[in-house]
Structures are given as C-alpha cells and as structure tokens.
Specification:
This protein is of the alpha/beta class. Helices cover about 40% and strands about 15% of the residues. The strands form four sheets. Strands 3-10-4 form a three-stranded antiparallel beta sheet. Strands 8-5-9 form a three-stranded antiparallel beta sheet. It has a two-stranded parallel sheet with strand order 1-2. Helix 10 (about 235-250) crosses helix 13 (about 325-334).
Length: about 325
C-alpha cells in the first residue's frame, strides 16, 4: 500500500478516535439522602423530557446516609455535585475549609409563603400549650446540628430555654418520629412533608410551632460543586442543569401530578396514597422553577447557625456562589 494512502488512513483513524473520546459523556455523580424531598434518583425518569442525558453527560445519583458524609466524598473526589443542607454547607466552608465550594442551584426551601414548613408537634393530651412548657421535657431531633435541630434550638432559646439545662434532646430518624411521640418516649417531634400528612399523627398530635416561625424562610438545601470540576466540565454541567430544570418543571406541572406520584411511589416502594394530594404541590416544600436559591435566607440561616455555636466563624455567602451556569441553563428554556 502506498505510503501516502497509509498516512491518510492513519490520520482518518486518529480523527475518528479523537471524536469518540470527545463525545464520551462527562460523568456527573450527584449525592442524595432521601426521596422525597430530594428528586435526584427519579428526576430523569422520563427520558422524553431530557435533551442532553447520555450525550454530553451521564448522571449517577449516589446515596448517602446524611449530608455531612457528602463533604467527605467531595474532599476525596468521589462526588461531583453535593446536595447540602444549609447546615452542612456552613460546615464544609468553616470546618472542612472548602474555599473552592460553590453553590450552583437551589434544591428546596422551607417556609416560603403559601408552601409547606416543617411542623414541631406535641401530643394533644401532653398539656404542652406553649414553648415555655417544654422545660424539663425530652425533644426528638433527626440529628444534632441538622437544619430542623437548629430551628428548634433557635425557637427555644428565644423563649429562655437551653439544651441540657432546661430540656433534653435525643436523636430519632424521621420514620420513627411518630412512634416515639405516641409511645410517650419524647414530648416533641419534628417531621418533614413525607411524614407530616399522616391522618393518625394528625389525630394524636398538634402543632406547637413551625420552622418558619423559628427561623423564617429557610434555604434548606442547595446543589454545590467545587470550582475545578466546574471549570473543567462547564458545558456538560450547564447541559445537566438545563435537563434538570426541564425535568423539575415537568414534575411541578399539575397535569403531570398523577404520573409524578406513580414514579415516586414506585421508587420508594410505598403506596401512592402516601404522596397523592401533597407531593410537588403547595403542601410540599418549595422548589424554584428556575433553580435559583434564596441567598438572603441562606445568609440568615448561616448567621443563626453561628449564633447557636455550630459554626466557629461567620460565612459570607456571596463568596461561595456561582449561579452563572444555572442562569445559562434557564435562558435555553425560554
């Protein structure tokens, strides 16, 4: 075979191989803890809604038992996008010294006017009628330093009550909150939307206060990533956010409510009755259709975290935000 033809064939093969490498989707590993409220494992259940999945990027939802564990995974390079609560975000900046961590999108918010806010419940026969009545009582929290834990402490401090001195705190997983309250093992619980719409609980317990009353609107969770990953894979991340927002808006569309409930019920292996009537409605936590977090609320939340002693230093939110990617994604939806 003439040398010129061999060279042409070699060049063609190299060009094809180069295109194949370039076309390889960027792997995006995104963390999640519980669905709902997090939608990561089911977000792309409708392939007809996404445009870029499997082309410019491939998404891999990675399950964690808590958001603090995601911080360790981020530090080790084992996770690309972490869905962090405001409490874990503050910890990542101050304790883990992740100066390159950036907020790239909203996940969900608590206490937005007209939407769900976490309720703090007591038994109807408990004799607890006001916050001051919690003195000497046992209170359940899902985790010391968690978002709902901080809201509880902020409210009780406002009424002159301090942990250990005036009340006791025990850690209880959300699925077990109802049982420990009804069995009189604790005097107050807090439950997320997935457990709040329970007729049996509603019959036996009543509202003492809400997270909104304790802390105001809360930027409960945000999507975060480190700048080296964003700089290297910006185009793929924008494609991912575009698809994520398109999928979120499909879920939020009332006409798709029944199908959305079916997807979540199938994923969780729970009866659809557990979700119908509240999931992804105004009875659920707020999710911004454009993926924009409430940074004013987040700053206030972090200030409260600092005041309660869970942060050793203040955090200036504006230094750790890059919303340019999600705004570019939003522009494509118009």
């Amino acid at each position: 075979m003439p040398r010129a033809i061999c060279a042409l064939l070699l060049a063609t093969l190299l060009l094809v191989a180069g295109h194949a490498v370039a076309a390889e989707p960027v792997a995006i590993r995104i963390g999640w803890v519980v669905t709902p409220p997090e939608l990561q494992p089911v977000l792309f259940a409708r392939p007809d809604v996404t445009k870029h999945l499997g082309k410019s990027y491939a998404m891999e939802p990675v399950h964690f038992k808590s958001t603090p564990v995601m911080i360790t995974a981020l530090a080790a390079g084992e996770l690309d996008i972490a869905a962090l609560t405001f409490a874990s975000f503050g910890t990542a900046i101050v304790n883990a010294h992740m100066e390159d961590l950036r907020i790239i999108a909203d996940e969900f918010q608590d206490g937005v006017e007209g939407y769900f806010t976490e309720p703090y419940l007591v038994r109807r026969d408990s004799g607890i009628d006001k916050v001051e009545d919690l003195k000497g009582k046992v209170i359940a929290t899902n985790g010391i330093g968690a978002g709902v834990d901080m809201a509880m402490r902020a409210m009780l401090r406002r009424h002159g009550l301090e942990d250990k001195r005036d009340y006791s705190v025990v850690e209880v997983q959300f699925p077990n909150m109802k049982a420990v309250l009804l069995e009189r093992k604790v005097d107050m619980i807090v439950v997320p939307a997935a457990f709040a719409h329970d007729p049996e609980l509603d019959k036996a317990a009543r509202l003492l206060f809400t997270q909104r009353e304790a802390m105001g609107p809360t930027q409960f969770a945000v999507w975060t990533a480190r700048t080296p990953f964003l700089e290297k894979n910006r185009a793929a991340v924008v494609d991912f956010l575009e698809d994520a927002l398109r999928a979120l808006n499909w879920y939020l569309e009332p006409a798709n409510h029944a199908a959305a409930v079916d997807i979540v019920a199938d994923f969780t292996h729970l009866p659809r009755a557990r979700f119908d009537g509240w999931l992804l409605t105004h009875k659920d936590q707020y999710r911004d259709p454009q993926g924009l977090p409430n940074l004013t609320a987040l700053q206030a939340n972090l200030n409260t975290q600092r005041e309660l002693g869970f942060l050793k230093a203040s955090v200036e939110v504006g230094k750790y935000v890059d919303l340019s990617l999600v705004k570019e994604a939003v522009a494509r939806l118009r």
